[in-house]
Amino acid sequence: xxxxxxxxxxxxGVSEQTFxxxxxxxxxxxxxxxxxxxxxxxxxxxxxxxxVSEANHTPSAAIMATTVEQIQKIVGICxxxxxxxxxxxxxxxxxxxxxxxxxxxxxxxxxHRMNRILxxxxxxxxxxVEPGVTYRQLYDYFQEHQLPLWLSVxxxxxxxxxxxxxxxxxxxxxPYGEHFLNACGMEVVLANGEILRTAxxxxxxxxxxxxxxxxxxxxLDGIFTQSNYGIVTKFGFWLQPAPPVYKPFMIxxxxxxxxxxxxxxxxxxxxxxxxxxSGVIAHALYEAGLKAKRSDYFSGPGxxxxxxVRKLAADHNMGIWNVTAALYGTQEQVDVNWKIVTExxxxxxxxxxxxxxxxxxxxxxxxxxxxxxxxxxxREFNLYNWRxxxxxxxxxxxxxxxxxxxxxxxxxxxxxxxRHGLDYTGEFIVGMRDMHHILDMxxxxxxxxxxKAAYQCFDELITEFSALxxxxxxxxxxxMDKVADTFGPVQRSVNRKLKxxxxxxxxxxxxxSGIRIGKPKSVxxxxxxxxxxx
Amino acid sequence: xxxxxxxxMKGMLASGALLALGVPSWAFADQPPRRxxxxxxxxxxxxxxxxxxxxxxxxxxxxxxxxxxTVHLKGGLFTGIDQLVHLLDQSRGARLIAILDDANAVIxxxxxxxxxxxxxxxxxxxxxxxxxxxIRHDLASTSQDHGAGGLLASQLTHxxxxxxxxxxxxxxxxxEPTFSxxxxxxxxxYRSAEPEAIHLHCSGFSLQDGCRLLxxxxxxxxxxxxxxMSDRGSLILPSENWVESVGYAVTASxxxxxxxxxxCSSRAFAHQATGGARIGPRERFMSFVMDL
Lengths: 534, 292
Hints:
A: 8-stranded antiparallel β-sheet; 16 helices; B: 292 residues; alpha/beta
């Protein structure tokens, strides 16, 4: 979206003159080079993979803070001029919206330079970091200091960071894979500039801030996740001690209906700890980009045929379902658990077992094995080459860890996607009782018709899944209001009341998770030319 | 990482290709204010690298530009980001033209942003048989100074290719648009002023079909637009390969030739070739132009 202002965009309801005054004050606090308003510098913040125009998510400025004191002054300026800020730590949210703000004209507060590792305790196995710290930084730190500690990382591993990922309630693939579950203590700059240290951090001399989550009174940490009630400036989380033995494995099945058997076998082993990590049940199409391109197997309009998928799987030694999990512990523990795993999965005769020995240098096994020990590996993103065209939307409904439910969700998703000519590119990340059903809706942004279909398809996925009681655990910035609506008016109302109490001027990330002090935004106000017309 | 400094121009001059290209009138004009002192072409092992680099060579030759070196990113970015981080760090002051597959492009951009780059343009390019137009481009530039869409449209029209291009400009300080800054034989141009000025150029498609193809709004709001001849449109690279044309157009824009007249906030091109369209290599990739 072009404008004839001095600025690329302006915050909603803020005049150019007022915004100019705010920018001047930002520069006074942060220095000229740390306040970006020109188009060339802002362009990298506008790129989205969602099927909407970048114009909907163009920031008015990007500002970079390095200290808590600077952030306190920034929120003061924002309150003074009613300028909204959209905070990112590393901004690697990709299919959930990347670094672009939820609403046009918001100022991106980029904390990637606030990247000090404040503390790593090798005995108690925790870390305290600033928001810009990346997993790669921590990984290198452990290597350098020879600390026998493991991270749990999401797929963007090296370039992402623990603060942003955990605050958005992301997941990894180790026994510590439910990241917010392993969060412990945070420091938050509130909209009025006050600094809150949650739980045990409230005691000035506490040495239990990163080891006891609950503190005293209401547990507050949760309200600072997937929300806009404060700016987290320090984040504590737990680390896994490196086990003496690590045994990754893959089990392949060749029919879509087999997911029922897989889940029914896995659930008790997740609940009783035989399989301790967040394993994955990945459909062949989720892994296909590692080994092939869609055009090698299918051309023309419409979603890929089942026949083509079976041929793809056969050609590349993949299952239609590919279960990856791992065992951790002493050799004795691993041996016992491996016996339990192979006996359970071996009963029906459908499972094909692959360990490191059989896998050799297989790329699919290889990248999963790295991620399940918290290593740095981004090869999962080969899936963006499967179809190509740069479009990606992550749809993330939660499922019971029950075979029949898993199959029902998979079939429903495939049916809706098929109506729009899109493929089922999905996986289930296996919790103890729940499954994160992750669907990467891949589409070609160079094809306007497919881009439009992708938007409509995502909208239908949310509508039809929520009608059956399936809620999304996370969503992209274009659909946050729609997903918020599915959780009902009372949740939205309570969220808004909290917002009004903690951020009465609504300066912190308005629109995050559909939360703002004003009226909820209609999901039909969002789009403009090229990417959508509604 | 393999560095091949300034060999591109030498090759071009030796082959005599410069003469074959013809030299555009604007090539000898005053140097544009934002013409880079040094350029780096980053190739990353895509199937389109070679043809894209040929287009880059041709553009450099046409603009008598010699300060370009080529860097090959080996092995992709998924398991090793150090080489790119090093390249971004060591190439300060240069203008970087990069071509990457769709997956590596995602990581590339995520590393470029914290490096504080100035992004001039990025484009997604595809040739496949699963759309109405086989050759498709989605371009975004920070301003019309760096928009490659017009030049690319001219190139592809000359190649008898059916194609679509959408192009957005992040910032536009233009006044009221009254004419098209691009034209080509056979194209009809239209303007839509609501909510911002969009220009649409169609050839072989009716306005209605062009709008449908590009998922644009209903046809009622479009106004025919008188054309103005464009110097850029007259510069044709004699190539039959659409990827080479992309390399040419992206590089020519990166070398910052004279600015287009500022006239719209976004534009689109739709062309249906007559008598059996050529398809060309079925490649998909992204291009970036950025200052480090």
